[in-house]
Design brief:
The longest helix has 22 residues. The chain is built from 3 helices and 5 strands. It folds into 2 domains: 104 residues, 2-Layer Sandwich (HIT family, subunit A), CATH 3.30.428; 31 residues, no CATH class. The chain has a 5-stranded antiparallel β-sheet with strand order 1-2-3-5-4, with helices on one face. It is 23% helix and 19% strand. With 139 residues, the chain is α+β, with helices and mostly antiparallel strands.
């Protein structure tokens, strides 16, 4: 089976940001914000949960370095980091890739809840927090 990420060659990838021994980062082909990047393992692996501990550490280091590049170039106000795991989780390419999505003040009307918004209507839980007396913990 063909794999988009396995087929990308570093010398022809004009979206490449950084590279380590086992991972690379690149700007997303279909960005949802300025600077939207993805961190991808070089070996074909479909699930985040099959990465080894050394791979997790290497991947984390590349996420931090990629964020530094994005911060300097685009100056976003915040970030979302996301993984679409499995078909039910929205994974459309069966090769693990971590989305590093820069966020900007005003890019949506109400960013409250962030990644919780993957399920419509579940992102803003401030009313429920108030009912539990936890509103002091909310921004």
């Amino acid at each position: 089976m063909k794999c988009f990420f396995c087929d990308i060659k570093s010398d022809t990838d004009d979206k490449r940001i950084l590279e380590t021994e086992s991972f690379f980062s690149r700007f997303d082909d279909f960005p949802i914000s300025r600077g939207h990047a993805e961190i991808v393992p070089k070996r074909h692996v479909e699930s985040f949960f099959t990465l080894t501990e050394p791979e997790l550490l290497e991947m984390y280091g590349l996420i931090v370095k990629t964020k530094t590049v994005i911060q300097e170039k685009f100056k976003p106000d915040g970030y979302n980091i996301g993984i679409n795991e499995g078909k039910a989780g929205g994974q459309t390419i069966n090769h693990l890739h971590i989305h590093l999505i820069p966020r900007y003040v005003g890019d949506v009307d109400n960013p409250r809840g962030g990644v919780r918004n993957v399920l419509q209507g579940k992102g803003d839980y401030s009313r429920e927090a108030e009912k539990l007396g936890r509103e002091e913990y909310l921004n």
